[in-house]
Amino acid sequence: MKAQTALAAIFSLAVSPAFAVDITIASSTEPSAIDPHFSRTGNNQNIAMQIFDRIAGIDPNLQQYPAIAESWTNTAPTKWLIKVRANVKFHDGTPLTADDVVFSLNRAGNIPNSPAPFTGNVASIADMKIVDPLTIEFTTKGPTPDFIEQIGSVFVVSRKAAEGKKLEDFNSGAAAIGSGPYKFKTWAKGDRVTLTRNNDYWGKKPDFENATIRVIGNDAARIAALRSNSVDLIDAVPPEDAASIAKMPGYKVFSTASARLIYLALDTTRNDAPFITTTDGKPLTPSPLKNLKVRQAISKMINRDLIIDRILNGSGLAAGQLVPEGVAGHDPSINVPSYDPEGAKKLLAEAGYPNGFGLTIHTSNDRFPGDSGTAQAIGQMLARGGLKVNEVVAQPYNVYATNAGKQMFSTFIFSLGNTTPTSGPGLKNLLMTFNAQDGTGAFNRLRYSNAAFDAKMKEGFAEFDTDKRIKLFQQATKIGFDDVPVVPLYWQKVHWAGKATIDYKPTKAEDTTAIDASLAK
User: Fold this and answer.
1) Residues 219-226, mean pLDDT to the nearest whole number
2) For position 326, what pLDDT does the model report?
């Protein structure tokens, strides 16, 4: 009790009686680039959405609203007409026009070495015709009912500023000319991104004149920074700390149940999957992960509720599929896999591995609360289930995501933040066969391929009747998750904490931005 009282006193001392017009946010992750088209991962998109505008915005409940595209009309099964918002200017004063939108959509699908590309968002476009400076007629390759859902999350860049420019030009700020609520100032890698308010912004202007996004990967260090009054808001608050901070005078905690699935990915494709060994450490081919019974066994070895209770302090919901209840495409007939270590051992024996085999689990250590702890717990569970866990390797997310994108792992923990109104785009990006030209499998780091799943997804994307389309996505979900290319673990509950002088609007997309913060009323 004395320790808690002392901690409360320390926290109360951190509150400043006066609040400046600037805000400093401590973020657990750093972007890998300022180019908004380089990677769809959250660490990059959080910075991008403050500098650039999307074609369509996404509200806290993942529903779209008009942004740069002021309106859209489906004029025929393969025809869409988009009206670009008038009087929008880039940060250099150049008007934003239909030409910039067309340029951005062409550019987004052709970024070299992207670890999480936008190819899937633009793959359905067959043709774009500029009707007038503020109107575009789109022709799609086939009926595309979710066309706006696909292209809506693409950021609009200035042709004048970005054409012919490289990644370094965005990182330096030379090409980082957006139309968003903040202007880019500097990026000191490993330290911070600084922004300044765009006073000519077409939409609601931010409360803060300057915003600094500091990179503080360590949980305790972020909390200490808040406590010492050096930052105003922090993200990725560990669940146990969220409960403590909420009780402290002068501080607030902002929480939301997210649609982010944390999953264990299994390489179902390669015979010589990396890090798969015999129990005495020798390379093992063909990889046991190609066997469905082995993958089912691994799922049964994992006690999801124990992870949620012990690692996450209750801040999660056990998962058995991609999206939680409330997101269209959730299939209520799919149950969370039960914890059954004896059943797992039986399946291993039936698969021909009664004595198990060796594997290495890879994970990030700063992407979401409990990522490395979850990996350690799963390692222990798999070991108790009859496997030999050679090692659990944790890496910083910006390194880890790149390595995962290069298929350097075979058993690894990742997450997918579902930021769309339906499960369709998430399923398309995570489990459809990788095809850069078709824009499928953009996040399919496993290179998983299932013809029946792909066929059901294609059927769903071509269906204009909403209820029928959702039913097809549910059927695809069952096909894909019954095959266990990924082991769903849980959907996380996320927390932010800030001074009492700050309000924050949490989103299911888990955004950490200065535009979601405001001065407390």
Assistant:
1) 96
2) 81
Q: Percent of the chain at pLDDT above 90? A: 83
Sign of CA dihedral 93, 96, 101, 103: negative
Q: Where in the chain is the domain with CATH 3.10.105.10?
A: 258-493
Can you list the pairs that 84-89 forms with residues at least 24 positions away whose Cβ atoms lie under 8 Å? 84/133, 84/134, 84/135, 84/136, 85/134, 85/202, 86/134, 87/202, 88/53, 88/179, 88/202, 89/179, 89/200, 89/202
Alpha-carbon distance of 329 to 427, in angstroms, equals 10
| Domain boundaries 258-493, corresponding CATH code | 3.10.105.10
- Residues 153/137, Cβ–Cβ less than 8 Å: no
Q: What is the pLDDT of residue 313?
A: 87
Query: 235, 215, 243, 151: which is closest to 398 by C-alpha?
Result: 215
Fold of 2-28+181-250+500-519: D-Maltodextrin-Binding Protein; domain 2 (3.40.190)
Q: Is the CATH number 3.90.76.10 carried by domain 52-162? A: yes
Q: Which residue has the tokens 């999953």?
A: 263
CB 220 within 8 A of CB 237: no
Mean pLDDT, all residues of the chain: 93
CB-count burial class (<10 Å; 0-12, 13-18, 19+) for 403: middle
Q: What is the chain's length?
A: 521
Q: Are 57 and 64 in contact (CB under 8 A)?
A: yes
Q: How far apart are CA 481 and CA 513, in angstroms?
A: 33
Residue 365 has pLDDT above 80, yes or no: yes
